[in-house]
Amino acid sequence: MKRCNWYLPLLLLSVMALPLGAQTTRNVLLEQFTGTWCQWCPDGADTIKAILARIPTARALAYHNQDAMATIAGDEVTDSSAVPGFPAASIDRIVWGINGNYYYAVSTRAWWGGLASTRAPATSPLSIGMSGFYDTTTAILSVTISIDVLAAMTGSYALHFVVSEDSVNYPQKRIVGSTVVTLNPYWHMNAVRDVTLGQPGEMLTTNGFTQGQKLTRSVAVQFLQDWDYRHCKMTAFVDRVWPISYGHREVQQMRQERIWNNASMITFVPVQLEAF
After folding, report:
1. For the chain, what is the radius of gyration of the CA atoms?
2. Partners of residue 266 on adjacent β-strands
3. Gap between the Cα atoms of 219 and 224, Å rounded
4. What are the φ and ψ backbone dihedral angles of 81, each rounded to 5 degrees?
5. Which position has the higher pLDDT, 264 or 216?
6. Which listed residue, 27, 41, 142, 267, has the most CB atoms within 10 A of its CB?
7. Rounded to whole angstroms, how far apart are CA atoms 188 and 167?
8. Contact residues for 159 (Cβ-Cβ < 8 A; gap 6+)
9. Which string of b and e fits 115-135 if b means at least 16 CB within 10 Å?
């Protein structure tokens, strides 16, 4: 039977009416700072993987530095995070006081899991939902982000939206014993592809939120040819902006969802029909 491609205009009108699936628990954001040239960074990736397996509500992003997966906005995130060395990780963008010292990005991998565990039980004043569509012809992802305020909040808050990709193959340096080897193939996870709203994010308010307040924002991302949307995820998070050095922020809530095979949030267009 001949296959016909049908573009359904009515579908586009109904896509954004999909259920937003608002969350009720806090998700913890781990932002990893890494590079393919860094022989210690695979140990950091292994640490992140173990934390994600142990803490069901933990999610991760990996900002690459000075390699093929690095982005300009990702470098700005790295530069604003006071990274002391690679690998390092920021946990919910909090400045942590440990043994009399303060860390925004933490290079001691043994601390990452404990800090994430500290954040996991905390309640969140926000709920985040996402819905949208991916156009396979133009390779554009369009998403509406819904934010529900569960409790009154004071201060300034910004929204961030990031696209990341799993199973990206690039050669990776690794220390084995006392020898540095190159691993190829090596499959990178959580690799940040696009920081859509830039490092500062989009300022939502400088005067706080009232309980019951609802906000929506729309974003669009042009996927590049070497991104595989079947392995990509979208991440939205809101952080509080504090007027101190290194642009200190504290993540209030985050939501990360896969794009492919996620019919409750993302619809693919155009739709192909076998018959009409």
Report:
1. 20
2. 132
3. 16
4. -105, 10
5. 216
6. 41
7. 5
8. 145, 147, 197, 201, 202, 204, 217, 236, 237, 238
9. bbeebbeeebbbbbbbbbbbb
Residue 23: pLDDT band (50, 70, 90) is low
Average pLDDT, the chain: 89
Judge if the upstream peptide bond of residue 270 is cis by omega within 30 degrees of 0.
yes
The pTM for the full model equals 0.88
In Å, how far from its chain's centre is CA 136?
22
pLDDT at 35 over 90: yes
Nearest-10 crossing angle of helices 109-119, 41-54: 30
